[in-house]
UniProtKB/TrEMBL annotation:
<keyword id="KW-0520">NAD</keyword>
<dbReference type="InterPro" id="IPR050223">
    <property type="entry name" value="D-isomer_2-hydroxyacid_DH"/>
</dbReference>
<dbReference type="GO" id="GO:0016618">
    <property type="term" value="F:hydroxypyruvate reductase [NAD(P)H] activity"/>
</dbReference>
<dbReference type="GO" id="GO:0051287">
    <property type="term" value="F:NAD binding"/>
</dbReference>
<dbReference type="InterPro" id="IPR036291">
    <property type="entry name" value="NAD(P)-bd_dom_sf"/>
</dbReference>
<feature type="domain" description="D-isomer specific 2-hydroxyacid dehydrogenase NAD-binding">
    <location>
        <begin position="108"/>
        <end position="280"/>
    </location>
</feature>
<dbReference type="InterPro" id="IPR006140">
    <property type="entry name" value="D-isomer_DH_NAD-bd"/>
</dbReference>
<dbReference type="GO" id="GO:0005829">
    <property type="term" value="C:cytosol"/>
</dbReference>
<dbReference type="GO" id="GO:0030267">
    <property type="term" value="F:glyoxylate reductase (NADPH) activity"/>
</dbReference>
<protein>
    <submittedName>
        <fullName>Hydroxyacid dehydrogenase</fullName>
    </submittedName>
</protein>
<dbReference type="Pfam" id="PF00389">
    <property type="entry name" value="2-Hacid_dh"/>
</dbReference>
<feature type="domain" description="D-isomer specific 2-hydroxyacid dehydrogenase catalytic">
    <location>
        <begin position="17"/>
        <end position="311"/>
    </location>
</feature>
<dbReference type="InterPro" id="IPR006139">
    <property type="entry name" value="D-isomer_2_OHA_DH_cat_dom"/>
</dbReference>
<keyword id="KW-0521">NADP</keyword>
<comment type="similarity">
    <text>Belongs to the D-isomer specific 2-hydroxyacid dehydrogenase family.</text>
</comment>
<keyword id="KW-0560">Oxidoreductase</keyword>
<dbReference type="Pfam" id="PF02826">
    <property type="entry name" value="2-Hacid_dh_C"/>
</dbReference>
Length: 319
């Protein structure tokens, strides 16, 4: 008996790909590589597998008339047209919680990296510069003021870690969280004006596009550092580059970029910037947990069982 057909809209992590292939025939981006063949295949597709930012547009959702679920490998799902999915009766799932620790760990890693210039120090030694040193001094992290843009699952986990460093913690979000015990600022600019390190950890998409703009960077100031582990779209990258070039801010730690995997070359050579390749959840343990959850959601959706982790907008579809 042939296996049911699912569509992968992007290159999937091997853990997720292999799990899917054990049960389904996985069509790898056929909608892009061979649209004519896909037109014939589309009615047979029972599930759509995606990644955090991979595009699942309205036009595709209209074609997969028998799809039962869109299962995203990642907590963010800004590439999925969720409104269209709901209209077509296709619930969307994601992988919250299982990656929270890793993303919070990397956020703190970037705070320490930019503040204490750890990657630069490594380069300094490797380049044989130590004998003619010393290096420029870093910025103390313990006891500094941390601002978190987006106090959700990951934002709270970052706050927990920052407490261990004796940092004073403030945040902004759409709504105040009075029970958090942290100081709330109603805008990113007001928060930025009152912190040393500004960590961005909101979803991407239209609602947060360029939330961190020239005004926010100016408020952060020449001794302030920006850390972005959210989505490249949340930061106005041109404004950020200008702010770094002009000394408007002290430096940045960046895991995400506007046009991944392409990072503006001007950033490569800036000593005050630490760059990672969108790898905040990239540990073996977490990628396995994400694959297990994404696969479980795919199987549940296709077999009509309760979904493990539908996105908030789709909760009412599955009750
Ligand atoms: P949550 O939904 O738990 O938290 C999101 C937070 O962002 C909430 O506090 C929310 O506010 C806030 N927020 C949303 N819109 C705005 C806005 N316009 N202005 C200010 N705050 C806003 O999500 P998670 O913490 O689980 O994940 C957050 C994001 O992290 C993901 O969506 C993804 O984009 C990113 N991420 C990046 C990874 C990487 O590899 N770099 C890995 C994993 C996630 P409120 O509480 O008021 O609704």
């Amino acid at each position: 008996m042939s296996k049911p057909d699912v569509l992968a809209v992007a290159k999937l992590h091997p853990f997720y790909q292999q799990a899917l292939e054990s049960v389904y025939t996985v069509h790898d981006r056929t909608h892009i590589t061979d649209p004519t063949a896909f037109a014939a295949l589309a009615p047979r597709i029972v599930g759509v597998a995606g990644t955090g930012e991979a595009s699942v547009p309205r036009s595709l959702l209209a074609q997969v008339t028998n799809a039962k679920v869109v299962s995203v490998f990642g907590v963010g799902y800004d590439g999925v047209d969720v409104a269209a999915a709901i209209e077509h009766g296709i619930p969307v799932t994601h992988t919250p919680d299982v990656l929270t620790d890793d993303v919070a760990d990397l956020a703190m890693g970037l705070v320490l990296s930019v503040g204490r210039t750890i990657p630069q120090a490594d380069q300094f030694v490797r380049a044989g510069q130590w004998p003619s040193g010393p290096m420029a001094l870093g910025r103390k992290v313990s006891g500094a003021r941390l601002g978190i843009v987006g106090l959700g699952r990951i934002g709270k986990a970052i706050a927990q870690r920052a407490k261990g460093f004796g940092m004073s913690i403030a945040y902004t979000a759409r709504t105040e969280k009075a029970d958090s015990g942290f100081k709330f600022f109603p805008s990113a600019a007001e928060l930025a004006a009152n912190v040393d390190f500004l960590v961005v950890i909101t979803p991407g998409g239209a609602g947060t596009k360029h939330l961190i703009n020239a005004e926010v960077l100016k408020a952060l100031g020449p001794r302030g550092f920006l850390i972005n582990v959210a989505r490249g779209s949340v930061v106005d990258e041109e404004a950020l580059i200008a702010a770094l070039q002009n000394g408007t801010i002290a430096g940045a730690g960046l895991d995400v970029f506007a046009n991944e995997p392409h990072v503006p070359e001007v950033l490569w050579t800036m000593n005050k910037v630490v760059i990672t390749p969108h790898m905040a959840s990239a540990t073996t343990e977490t990628r396995q947990a994400m694959a297990d959850l994404a696969f479980a959601n795919m199987q549940a959706g296709i077999s009509g069982q309760p979904l493990r982790t539908p996105v908030p907008e789709c909760m009412s579809m599955v009750k």
